[in-house]
Amino acid sequence: MLKTSALFMLTALAEILGCYLPWLWLRQGGSVWLLVPAALCLAAFAWLLTLHPSDAGRVYAAYGGVYISMAMVWLWLVDGVRPTITDLAGAGLCLLGVAVIVLGSRGTTG
Protein backbone atom coordinates (compact mmCIF):
# COMPACT_ATOMS: atom_id res chain seq x y z
CA MET A 1 0.00 0.00 0.00
CA LEU A 2 2.90 2.36 0.77
CA LYS A 3 4.43 1.72 -2.66
CA THR A 4 1.10 2.41 -4.38
CA SER A 5 0.60 5.62 -2.38
CA ALA A 6 4.09 6.87 -3.21
CA LEU A 7 3.58 6.06 -6.89
CA PHE A 8 0.26 7.94 -6.92
CA MET A 9 1.87 10.97 -5.25
CA LEU A 10 4.79 10.99 -7.69
CA THR A 11 2.35 10.68 -10.58
CA ALA A 12 0.32 13.62 -9.27
CA LEU A 13 3.44 15.74 -8.82
CA ALA A 14 4.48 15.04 -12.41
CA GLU A 15 1.04 16.05 -13.71
CA ILE A 16 0.84 19.17 -11.56
CA LEU A 17 4.31 20.30 -12.66
CA GLY A 18 3.46 19.52 -16.28
CA CYS A 19 0.48 21.87 -16.04
CA TYR A 20 2.00 24.48 -13.73
CA LEU A 21 5.03 25.26 -15.91
CA PRO A 22 2.95 26.29 -18.97
CA TRP A 23 0.78 28.30 -16.58
CA LEU A 24 3.91 30.14 -15.44
CA TRP A 25 4.80 30.81 -19.05
CA LEU A 26 1.33 32.00 -20.08
CA ARG A 27 0.13 33.80 -16.96
CA GLN A 28 3.31 34.97 -15.26
CA GLY A 29 5.47 35.84 -18.27
CA GLY A 30 7.89 32.95 -17.74
CA SER A 31 10.29 31.69 -20.36
CA VAL A 32 9.01 29.64 -23.28
CA TRP A 33 11.70 27.13 -22.25
CA LEU A 34 9.41 26.12 -19.38
CA LEU A 35 7.51 24.10 -21.97
CA VAL A 36 10.39 21.61 -22.31
CA PRO A 37 10.34 20.38 -18.70
CA ALA A 38 6.53 20.64 -18.78
CA ALA A 39 6.38 18.20 -21.69
CA LEU A 40 8.82 15.87 -19.92
CA CYS A 41 6.71 16.00 -16.76
CA LEU A 42 3.54 15.15 -18.67
CA ALA A 43 5.31 12.27 -20.42
CA ALA A 44 6.51 11.04 -17.03
CA PHE A 45 2.94 11.36 -15.70
CA ALA A 46 1.59 9.13 -18.48
CA TRP A 47 4.39 6.60 -18.00
CA LEU A 48 3.93 6.51 -14.22
CA LEU A 49 0.25 5.66 -14.64
CA THR A 50 1.27 2.54 -16.57
CA LEU A 51 3.29 1.24 -13.60
CA HIS A 52 0.20 0.44 -11.54
CA PRO A 53 -0.71 -3.25 -11.66
CA SER A 54 -4.48 -2.70 -11.71
CA ASP A 55 -6.89 -2.03 -14.56
CA ALA A 56 -6.53 1.39 -16.18
CA GLY A 57 -10.00 2.67 -15.26
CA ARG A 58 -9.59 1.73 -11.62
CA VAL A 59 -6.15 3.33 -11.50
CA TYR A 60 -7.47 6.56 -13.05
CA ALA A 61 -10.37 6.68 -10.61
CA ALA A 62 -8.19 6.17 -7.54
CA TYR A 63 -5.50 8.48 -8.90
CA GLY A 64 -8.03 11.31 -9.21
CA GLY A 65 -8.50 11.44 -5.46
CA VAL A 66 -4.77 11.51 -4.82
CA TYR A 67 -4.37 14.26 -7.45
CA ILE A 68 -6.94 16.43 -5.68
CA SER A 69 -5.16 15.98 -2.36
CA MET A 70 -1.76 16.74 -3.87
CA ALA A 71 -3.23 19.86 -5.48
CA MET A 72 -4.22 21.05 -1.99
CA VAL A 73 -0.65 20.48 -0.80
CA TRP A 74 0.58 22.43 -3.85
CA LEU A 75 -1.86 25.24 -3.03
CA TRP A 76 -0.32 25.52 0.41
CA LEU A 77 3.39 24.96 -0.31
CA VAL A 78 3.80 26.57 -3.73
CA ASP A 79 0.98 29.08 -4.04
CA GLY A 80 1.28 30.07 -0.39
CA VAL A 81 -2.46 29.77 0.22
CA ARG A 82 -3.54 27.85 3.29
CA PRO A 83 -6.33 25.39 2.38
CA THR A 84 -9.67 26.07 4.04
CA ILE A 85 -11.45 23.56 6.21
CA THR A 86 -13.73 22.75 3.27
CA ASP A 87 -10.68 22.23 1.02
CA LEU A 88 -9.29 19.77 3.55
CA ALA A 89 -12.66 18.06 4.04
CA GLY A 90 -13.07 17.63 0.29
CA ALA A 91 -9.55 16.23 -0.07
CA GLY A 92 -10.21 13.89 2.86
CA LEU A 93 -13.39 12.61 1.22
CA CYS A 94 -11.46 12.01 -1.98
CA LEU A 95 -8.82 10.03 -0.10
CA LEU A 96 -11.57 8.00 1.54
CA GLY A 97 -12.83 7.22 -1.96
CA VAL A 98 -9.32 6.20 -3.00
CA ALA A 99 -9.12 3.82 -0.04
CA VAL A 100 -12.49 2.28 -0.92
CA ILE A 101 -11.42 1.76 -4.55
CA VAL A 102 -7.94 0.45 -3.81
CA LEU A 103 -8.73 -1.71 -0.80
CA GLY A 104 -12.03 -2.95 -2.22
CA SER A 105 -10.41 -4.09 -5.44
CA ARG A 106 -7.79 -6.32 -3.79
CA GLY A 107 -7.93 -9.80 -5.15
CA THR A 108 -10.16 -8.94 -8.11
CA THR A 109 -9.13 -9.53 -11.68
CA GLY A 110 -10.52 -7.48 -14.48
What does this structure look like?
It is a single chain. This protein is mainly alpha-helical and 110 residues long. It has one domain (2-104). It contains four helices and no strands. The protein has helices spanning 2-28, 35-49, 56-77, 85-104. Helix 1 crosses helix 3 (56-77) and helix 3 runs antiparallel to helix 4. The longest helix is centred in the first third of the chain and has 27 residues, at 2-28.
Q: Which range best describes the helical content: under 10%, 10-25%, 25-40%, 40-55%, 55-70% or over 70%? A: over 70%
Give me the secondary-structure category.
mainly alpha
Largest sheet: none
The structural domain count equals 1
> What general outline do the C-alpha atoms trace?
flat
Task: Report the total helices.
Answer: 4
Query: Strand portion, in percent?
Result: under 5%
Give short descriptive properties of this protein:
110 residues, mainly alpha, 4 helices, flat
Give a concise summary.
With 110 residues, this protein is mainly α. It has one domain.
Write the layout of secondary structure elements.
Blueprint: H1 2-28, H2 35-49, H3 56-77, H4 85-104
Helix pairs in contact: 1-2, 1-3, 3-4
